[in-house]
Please model this.
Amino acid sequence: MRILICGNGAREKCLAGLCPGRGHAVPDHGPWDAAVLPLPKSYLPEETADQLPRGQKIVCGATDAAFDKLAEKRGWKLLRVLQDETYTRENAALTAEGALFTAVARMNRALRGSHCLVIGYGRIGKALTGLLRALGATVTVAARREESRREAGANSVSIREMPKVLSGMDAVFNTVPAPVLGEEELRHVKPQCVLIDLASAPYGIDRDAAEALGLKAYLESGLPGRYCPQSAAETLLNYLEREGSA
Model:
């Protein structure tokens, strides 16, 4: 394939380096078989958009209404990678590993023997819970659905029950893209606890409230492209080879 890679982040640079070894060209000028936009939130420079013909395949993540309208007008074929089950499962595993990396870098203690709260039990929540428990952490999962709480284990709680367990946590990982930790909930968090938001917008942790309370809160969405860009690029290229040639 002839692939246009938009963006100059670490993931995009690794992707450009991987392509030739797997038989793909990365030319500066079209025509291209597929265009790959930055992830997880995708954008397309106006000057690049003008070069893409009708029917162009474009790999993208989350897009805004203006982009969607332009894509429909231009007749582009959007390959929404975040809706692909295989990609999202592999990406969740990379996100979970990156979450451990950023937590260890910011905690004043090991994850082994620590008490951690994982909010949400989707793909990322499941992968993260498994890794934390494998390291010897005691993990409590907070989830809305009773089915998820049963799957997560006996010490899981509902979102509304979180204030009861927050005070005992050394680290809190949020995976829910909706407000779940506001000022009221954050008042239960001890000062040395590390708060890590892995969700996409509108995010789940009120970082302004956390700062006002003297808490350490970090936004860490889009982890794979920043902490393991080579692996993130491989996962993306695997998707492109599956779907882009169809």
